[in-house]
Automatic annotation (TrEMBL):
Domain of life from the UniProt record: Bacteria
Name this protein carries in UniProt: Transposase
Domain named ISXO2-like transposase: residues: 128-271
PANTHER family, per database record: DDE_TNP_IS1595 DOMAIN-CONTAINING PROTEIN, SI:DKEY-17M8.2
Length: 294
């Protein structure tokens, strides 16, 4: 089911509704007061992002430890930005957030940056990938030289990203300093379950995979081979195409310093592509996974 803007406005009409949801996520429906130890009901405190215990008056501040902690921006604007970034295929640029929210560019940029970090809190995906996994690396940003693999020399200013997609399942990706065996091997062993089938291209760093218990097959793009029986990397290459196209069309360019956050953002939407109507609430639920502050 699609989660529309009308649904969003009905669920979060004001800051009080947003704050109540944050409180519920972080303390649950039957909270225990840390000070008096009793099962309690926390009452909202007028004019503050805080609640008070009905028995001892102890104050709790549910926004502490979240992206909203030190922000004076209304929670409704934060939630609206979160909705926009889950409702659009390529995300939203800081300039567009500035227009939509009516805030300064600096504020819009920070909101977008913090939401991308929240998208990266994908704790439900911390387990290893399994089954048949496609692994590939790509080069993002900089200026292509027209020489070498991917049209880039190893010493240019492009950023290398390694990605893994479980067929029919989730994506994981991260920036890497190079594509040498010593760099890629530990990442694969940490993120792909022992015994899984792995598809890659012809990069020599992957040749060691059978030694570590993986069934490995590859395709040779240099020989114009894109499918080799069960083995191909078409899904991960389609992800790279969407990521790069989204960055170019929506964000124009991305600094290497923050590229990982954009990888997480696009990965989040990819991983929940089968249930797009749940994306907003799934991201919101990540607030509960942070350490609760009082």
């Amino acid at each position: 089911m699609k989660y529309t803007h009308k649904n969003f406005v009905e669920d979060f009409p004001d800051d009080a509704a947003c704050l109540a949801r944050i409180m519920e996520l972080r303390y649950g429906n039957e909270p225990i007061c840390d000070k008096c130890g009793k099962s309690t009901h926390f009452h909202p405190i007028t004019g503050r992002r805080a609640f008070a215990c009905q028995w001892c008056g102890h104050h709790v501040y549910p926004c502490v430890g979240t992206p909203f902690e030190k922000s004076s921006t209304p929670l409704t604007l934060w939630f609206h930005a979160m909705y926009l970034m889950t409702a659009t295929r390529n995300g939203v640029s800081a300039k567009e957030l500035q227009r939509q929210l009516g805030v300064t560019y600096k504020t819009a940029w920070r909101i977008g940056h913090e939401i991308r970090k929240l998208m990266g809190e994908r704790n439900e995906l911390n387990g290893p990938l399994s089954g048949h996994v496609e692994i590939d690396e790509t080069y993002i940003g900089g200026k292509a030289t027209g020489k070498g693999r991917h049209g880039a020399l190893s010493g240019d200013n492009k950023t290398i990203v390694m990605g893994m997609i479980q067929r029919g399942g989730p994506f994981k990706g991260q920036i890497v300093p190079d594509v040498k065996r010593r760099t890629l091997k530990p990442i694969i062993r940490e993120n792909v379950e022992y015994g899984s089938t792995i598809s890659t291209d012809e990069l020599s760093a992957y040749n060691v995979l059978p030694v570590y218990g993986y069934q490995h097959g590859k395709v040779s793009h240099r020989q114009k081979q894109y499918v080799n029986g069960l083995f191909h990397v078409n899904n991960i290459e389609n992800f790279w195409k969407h990521l790069k196209g989204g960055i170019r069309s929506t964000h124009m360019s991305v600094s290497p310093k923050y590229l990982q956050n954009y990888i997480e953002e696009f990965g989040f939407r990819y991983n929940h592509r089968k249930e797009p109507g749940t994306m907003f609430y799934r991201m919101l639920s990540h607030l509960a996974k942070k350490e609760t502050a009082v």
